[in-house]
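I am writing to request your help with a piece of structural work I have in hand. A protein sequence and the structure tokens that stand for its backbone fold form the material at issue. Please examine both parts with care and let me know of anything in them that strikes you as inconsistent. The record follows directly beneath this note.
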Amino acid sequence: MTTRLLNHCLSFPKLSLKRLNNIKSYINLGTEMKLLNDKKQFEKALAIFDHHGINNITTLSNFAITQVLKACAHTGDLQRGKIIHNLIASETKNDIYVSSTLIHMYVHCGDIASAQSLLDSTKNKTPPMYGIMMKGYIKNKQTNKAIDLFNEIQNPNDVHMILLFNACAQLKTKEALDLVKKTSEQIPKSFYSNPRLLTSLLDALMKCGDVAHAESLFYSSKQKILPMYGAMMKGYVDNNLPEKAIDLFNKIENPNDVNIILLFNACAQLKTKEALDLVKKTSKQIPKSFYSNPRLLTSLLDALMKCGDVAHAESLFYSSKQKVLSSYGAMMTGYVENNLAQKTIELFNELKNPADVNETLLNQMKLDDIQSSIPIYLSAIKAVSQIGDYSKAQSIAKQIPDSSLVENQIRGALIDLWVSSNKVVSNLLRF
């Protein structure tokens, strides 16, 4: 019955399966799937499983099971993964590799409750299981659970330490800072040879506001890597120390795109002529390949706008072939800050016109790209307020999806707008 349900629920799109003819026995199934998984051809791996493994799932090797579960994780196929779990539960409950892969699958698909339940029921918990679960908690903003789980580990390794520091960085509290300092004093010295651990420690110290401690650790480190510079620069920007971020950038021999993004962010924070000159100089020197990074383009646009060079920002924006939501947000925010509200409205109307090349971006705004959409809606609201054309306000407000209306910034801007125009707030806000 369950196998028939698997066949019914997991019907997969037809793919080219010429390679299936080369599989001579079920013994080769796990190896064949691994080859496809390694090439990130997860859908093909699942298609092979559907063709050869469904009717004999209970006789497959545990290695083959781990491969199909990995493919489920990377395709987000939680339903398939759950059914497979139910089919193999009794045969594989004591296999640590299958259990680890199942936990990873649940975490990757966002089912934290099932992952936690499986971990709790596992007698022999392994270090990777703890790591997978901690990472899942952090990704789903359940930071305190990640810290609680860390405290259950008898002999945490460097990966667990990194995840603990990441959790504390997410909290940004005094208690989190105290835990970071306490843990960093207790870990083996050999762990400090791991640059990823040092980077996460620097990030946690900066996020929790202890700039001095982070600086001491950074400058005493003999082997500095680019992510460490990035953690320090981001920390300086977050702690309103843009000059220090710029000074540190100037010490990097071969900065990568992340370092350059952080430089632009620091210059945007300064808003000075000197900062603008540095932005222009750097933008001319960076490799052309860096411009394919939409985050770099967005940060460059933001810096130019913040420093008052609207013309340069417009030239760059309109010459860009692949525009993303965040780029529109940077331009619209910049227009408002430079008292060019009408241009904000024009760009908003351009973005919302499905007849243009922006249909994909429009769909993103309607769906789940909330963080990129917020600056766009916020700028449009501020623009109509700046112009004083309240007849456009209701039209704009009606286009804001409910998922964005819950954001405090947008709610606050709408309330301010309608109070200033003597309108009744409850007639506009859908909450």
In short: The first helix runs from residue 2 to 9. Confidence is low (pLDDT under 50) at residues 8-24, 424-431.
